[in-house]
Specification:
alpha/beta, globular, 8 strands
Length: 510
């Protein structure tokens, strides 16, 4: 900027989501000169988000019933006890109908007290009824006013009900609520293709949202191309991040796709008299019927009756360069410190998981635990791998050679060569708290390496792993070892082998 105009002071403007196409307008409105602007941009693409679009005929299918069925199916198939889900609705009326159907929490209007109570209960996963009865509830229905106001680690599903999308801005911000710990988040857009909300700002990129939900192309292309100026597909992202979740277009035969289709097939027809959908009698629900609330008070919890504002992590090996695409700007694009901190936070959460597992299994065979979920005490007559009940191993690579091969690919002093778990690097505490020693002095020798090797030896387990990480089912142990040892420094992921352990443990052993 012009130092003469601003007395020599620097100005910093912060925006959560700014597409490259609006950068020039932003500079003009903020009276900034491009030659003095330095842009720091994080990418929209995040590998842990899996996008789905559910197109329905609003005249034949009740959207409330579809939303309810999708939420129920995702909760049954995908959720763990820590999971929470959000449904963004077109207005307060839709939120009320979902509450009546699902007994979920709601957040809308200007009743800050009710919203605050609901939000705190939703975080705990327990809903307290008027009679004091408590039920488990993982879902909240909220108007788009809350799209920027939710900060929770384990949001594992984000569903949008028609106008609840609030344009591409709303879609990107809303899906950005999920997957913050690296756990896969199902992002589902339920659309009739006819929505045209009147209250959406002209910069909300409504046409881009319609293109996102109506075109049969990879569902990563529109948000990454529009927001980052750098379109990328699931397949391209997976080459950089093996844990990439493929969208429903790129991988149309997953269980989640099947369950979404079933949710539509099982949905009810629309009510002839919409007014017959009475609002819930829940005392925490405001009677305020205002749509898209701007109130940013805490949100609520949901269940079937049965950290400060966060930005999506930007990965150093995959950051966009606006300057390279726009030579007139002429300044490099860098990662800023807050984005780096989010990457660090993700890694430290994974380390905490390792600490928990090591503490739980210490003194027992890690392979018997990961494969059979049994705690077998370590003893001289129990040989690792050999006595762990695995299939015939004579045709493949020995586990010791497997460990040596992939460990040799890892950077020095980043991971313990005794077990394969992380070490502290540059004063960052990546080492699990329950891990001691290094190399020959490690207190859990061979643990991570042996678990990774064992998971591949069990056919049904290897099938699940190969499908999730998009690996060749017929990959031999040597090529698998080479893939396991791949590691991108300064990213939110550990090497591929540890990412397998994280995924398997989160889904099968917690």
């Amino acid at each position: 900027m012009n130092s003469k105009d601003y007395g020599g002071y620097q100005r910093r403007s912060v925006t959560a989501t700014l597409p490259v196409s609006l950068q020039q307008q932003f500079m003009e409105r903020a009276t900034l000169r491009s030659e003095f602007c330095h842009w720091i941009r994080g990418e929209t693409n995040r590998p842990e988000l899996r996008y789905h679009v559910a197109r329905i005929d609003g005249k034949e299918t009740c959207i409330i019933s579809v939303l309810t069925n999708i939420a129920r199916n995702i909760e049954t198939f995908h959720f763990t006890p820590e999971s929470r889900g959000i449904i963004f609705t077109a207005d307060a009326t839709m939120a009320k109908k979902l509450n009546a159907q699902m007994n979920c929490f709601v957040h809308y209007g200007s009743n800050h007290l009710a919203n605050s109570i609901n939000m705190e209960q939703w975080k705990d996963g327990i809903k307290v009824g008027e009679n004091g009865r408590k039920v488990k509830q993982k879902w909240i229905a909220a108007t788009p006013g809350l799209i920027n106001g939710i900060d929770l680690d384990r949001i594992d599903a984000v569903i949008f009900g028609e106008e609840g999308m609030a344009g591409l801005f709303g879609g990107v911000q809303g899906t950005g609520r999920g997957g913050r710990t690296g756990h896969p988040c199902m992002c589902v857009f339920v659309s009739t293709g006819t929505f045209n909300p009147k209250t959406v700002d002209r910069f909300a990129l409504l046409d881009d949202m319609k293109r996102w939900t109506q075109e049969d192309i990879c569902l990563r292309l529109t948000p990454s191309g529009t927001m980052d100026g750098k379109p990328i597909t699931c397949t391209e992202l997976q080459k950089l991040y093996p844990n990439t979740e493929f969208c429903a277009v790129c991988q149309p035969k997953t269980d989640i796709v099947r369950l979404i289709k079933k949710a539509i097939d099982d949905a009810e027809q629309p009510s002839i008299d919409a007014s017959s959908d009475l609002p819930s009698s829940d005392p925490l629900i405001s009677t305020d019927s205002s749509s898209n609330s701007s109130a940013m008070g805490p949100s609520t919890k949901s269940s079937f009756s049965s950290l400060s504002s966060w930005k999506a992590p930007s990965y150093s090996s995959h950051q966009s360069s606006f300057a390279a695409q726009n030579p007139s700007i002429g300044l490099p694009v860098q990662m800023n410190s807050s984005l780096a901190q989010n990457t660090l936070f993700t890694k430290l959460n994974k380390t905490a998981l390792f600490s928990k597992i090591i503490t739980r299994v210490l003194g027992h065979c890690f392979v018997c635990w990961i494969i059979h979920h049994r705690f077998v005490p370590l003893a001289q007559n129990h040989r690792l791998i050999v006595n762990c009940g695995l299939p015939d191993l004579r045709r493949g690579m020995s586990w010791i050679n497997f460990k040596r091969q992939y460990i040799s690919l890892l950077p020095a002093y980043h991971f313990c060569h005794g077990c394969g778990f992380p070490q502290n690097v540059d004063h960052e505490h990546f080492e699990p708290s329950s891990h001691n020693g290094y190399g020959r002095n490690c207190n859990i020798p061979d643990s991570a390496a042996a678990m990774i090797y064992a998971l591949k030896q069990v056919p049904e387990t290897w099938l699940s792993i190969s499908q999730h990480f998009h690996l060749d089912r017929n990959m031999d142990d040597g090529n698998f070892a080479n893939w396991v040892g791949q590691y991108i420094p300064n990213s939110p992921n550990y090497y591929n082998g540890l990412e397998i352990l994280i995924w398997f443990i989160q889904n099968n052993r917690l």
